[in-house]
Amino acid sequence: MAFAPNVQEMVRSNPLQVPETFLVSRKEEDEPKSTAEVLDLSSKIPILDLSLLSREHKEELNKLDQACKEWGFFQVVNHGVATELLQEMKDATAKFFELPLEEKNKIRMSGGREGYGQAYAISEGQTMDWSDTLILSLYPAQSRDLQFWPTAPNGFRETIEAYSSEVKRIGEELIRSLSTIMGLEKDALLGLHKEVLQALRVNYTPPCSMPDKVLALSPHSDTTTITILMQEDNVTGLQIRKEGKWVPVKPIPNALVVNVGDALEIWSNGKYKSIEHRAVPNESRLRISYASFLFPHTDAEVGPFDHMVESSRIYKKLKFGDYMAKAIKGKLDGKAHTEMAKIGS
Ligand code: OGA
Ligand code: NI
Question: Which keywords, in A-to-Z order, does the entry hold (predicted)?
Answer without folding.
Answer: Iron, Metal-binding, Oxidoreductase, Vitamin C
